[in-house]
Amino acid sequence: MIQHTVSDISAPDLECVNSDVALDTALERMFETGQPQLGVIHDDKLAGIISHRDITRVLHLSDQINQNESVLEKPVIMAVNRSLTCVSADDDLFTLFDKLADVPYVLIEDDGDPKVLRDVRLHQFLKDEIKGFLLIEEIERTIRDIIRQTVDDDPNTELTETFASLDIRTPNRLVECSFRHYSIFISDNWATFEDQFDNNQDFVRELIARVGDIRNQMFHFRDLHDSNPMDTEFIEFAREHLNHIHTEMATS
Asked: Does pTM surpass 0.85?
């Protein structure tokens, strides 16, 4: 996420209406476009934004002075919010966090048509970005559980014995293992694990190794989306496959 900027988040163009359009017409336009905000153009310039919240505020105030019957026929300019919060397409996400902490949406300033970015789109973007990390974490927990439940002796002792003679860092505990460690440990102790993995030694070794490669890409700030487009599907497959093995172990 450190490398991401505002431009990485998909944001729709800001739908606009003229300043003399009636409030009820603006509401209809919002429903048609699915956007809760509309830009208001006055003298060929963006005068501000009208939103559901702005119209509700005007209706509430009008009700207090018994003028609510005709207010929806008034032009949108009477309810426009001229206090615009803007960000640049090149701004980093930390700047965006700060802006959206105070307002529900921001305008993206660039050379093209204005775009509006709502806080819900940022939340969805973050959810999508973190999904891969959560899947990797779940896979790692499952592998550790499978090892703990399969190895009769202390797994930490078995790790020391397996890696002591190999040209690779020897982990002192299971939680210190990398995916490479898991792959080597299971492969070198295959007689212990073959029943759990249905004798598919090469498949399991490559499965765990590839998960480790994808994990390394992600933790070096390379997006899962920017690598092989099948990586996300593969991670989900690996999660389901290993969870199935773990479940079978628990019920057998």
From this structure: no
